[in-house]
Write a structure and sequence with these properties.
alpha+beta, about 15% strand
């Protein structure tokens, strides 16, 4: 059972009061979608544009989209989003990586290279990880990952 309604794969952001920002371009990310709701969350779509691929391959791209998302939140509500861009970057990356792995493993050419049996085993493992994620990296103000924000911030600064 989902902790928040947004964790349901069928969640309708627009119908639930989120402001939808389409065609956001930042760094290598093109045609991203960023949804914001006052005192609730920022949701970065992993199904619009090339967001999932770019974010899965680069924590820096996740940081860039997080900075842009925070700007959108600030411009929309005239208030800063209380989660740092560094912490948001890690959360976006955590969501993006399984989505891309799932697509790669289910690619016919990859299955031929790995062999059907091995690819199938990998696909089952990846699908379990993917099943626990939605198609959006939803960074909630009050979700459980806020307990890890200081760790995420320190880890990001160590890398960059």
């Amino acid at each position: 059972m989902a902790l928040f309604p947004e964790d349901n794969g069928n969640f309708d952001y627009k119908a639930n009061g989120y402001y939808i920002n389409d065609n956001v371009n930042v760094g290598s990310i093109q045609n991203a979608q960023i949804n914001v709701k006052y005192q609730r969350a920022i949701a970065v779509s992993l199904i619009h544009g090339n967001t999932a691929v770019q974010c899965a391959s680069s924590l820096k791209e996740c940081y860039n989209i997080a900075v842009e998302a925070r700007k959108i939140y600030l411009n929309t509500f005239r208030e800063r989003f209380p989660v740092s861009a560094e912490a948001m970057a890690w959360e976006i990356w955590i969501h993006a990586t399984p989505e891309v792995l799932d697509r790669v493993i289910n690619n016919k050419i990859v299955r031929i290279i790995l062999g059907t049996s091995l690819a199938g085993k990998i696909a089952i493992a990846v699908s379990k990880v993917v099943a626990s994620h939605t198609e959006y990296a939803d960074i909630g103000i009050n979700d459980n990952l806020r307990n890890f924000d200081s760790f995420f911030e320190k880890a990001y600064k160590l890398i960059y």
